[in-house]
Write a structure and sequence with these properties.
Blueprint (H helix, E strand, L loop, with lengths): L6 E6 L3 H12 L4 E7 L2 H10 L4 E5 L7 H11 L4 E6 L4 H9 L4 E4 L3 H13 L4 E2 L1 H17 L10 H11 L4 H8 L3 H15 L4 H10 L6
Parallel strand pairs: 1-2, 1-3, 3-4, 4-5, 5-6
Helix pairs in contact: 2-3, 7-9, 7-10, 8-9
Length: 219
């Protein structure tokens, strides 16, 4: 039986082996327990509606709905929920997006055995967790932007356009996207045209490359 001090965790990752490994790390700690698992962002949001959880650990790049998209939705549904992002990639764009959606920390899968437990406890204390390598990234990013005289770039596309972009990059047709998002195929085409114009891209291939760079899908 869980003690009141036990942190109840939702773990979302589309790779079962990764989930198993992460769960072993977490369940071996007396104050942490995984009570729900999901293999995409949509399932994670659904699980959060039915399970009582304190902390969500979300892989950034998952099918259907990314961890970042799920984090935005979870933050709206449960403002007190703590969120950690899990990723393979040491990428400042992912890091800044994770902060924007309200995540408390950003943990690299390659060092999860070293950092994840500490990140969970920091999140539950209300403290941000920053892995050591990101400090160098942040300083480099700040210096680059200072030299260029520019601020952090504004988010170029809307949440709905991001959903469409991700599904296009995953190879779905306009008809399939329309069914998945419960909108018309004509609306999907309009979003696709807006994406091409806003991002200065020519075709589906370039949209897919952009989606990979933006962390919406894994290469």
């Amino acid at each position: 039986m869980n003690t009141p001090a036990t942190t109840r965790i939702l773990l979302a990752d589309d790779h079962a082996l990764v989930r198993r490994g992460v769960r072993l790390i977490l369940d071996s700690e007396p104050d942490l327990t995984v009570v729900a698992e999901a293999d995409d962002g949509a399932q994670a949001v659904a699980a959060a509606r039915t399970e009582q959880i304190d902390l969500a650990i979300l892989d950034i790049a998952m099918p259907r709905t990314t961890g970042l998209q799920a984090a935005r939705e979870l933050a709206r549904l449960q403002p007190d929920l703590r969120i950690l992002m899990l990723t393979m990639y040491d990428n400042e764009q992912y890091f800044f997006e994770a902060l924007k959606v309200g995540a408390s920390g950003y943990v690299l899968k390659s060092v999860a055995d070293r950092d994840l437990v500490e990140a969970c406890r920091a999140a539950m204390r209300g403290e941000p967790f920053v892995y050591p390598g990101v400090v160098t990234t942040l300083i480099r990013d700040y210096l680059d932007r200072a030299r260029e005289g520019g601020p952090l770039p504004a988010r170029a596309i809307t949440d709905r356009e991001e959903e469409v972009l991700k599904l296009v990059a995953e190879g779905h047709t306009s008809k399939e996207i329309a069914q998945l998002l419960v909108i018309s195929a004509k609306t999907v085409e309009r979003h696709r045209a807006n994406l091409l114009q806003k991002l200065g891209l020519k075709d589906r291939l370039e949209l897919t490359r952009y989606a990979i760079r933006a962390g919406l899908i894994e290469p």
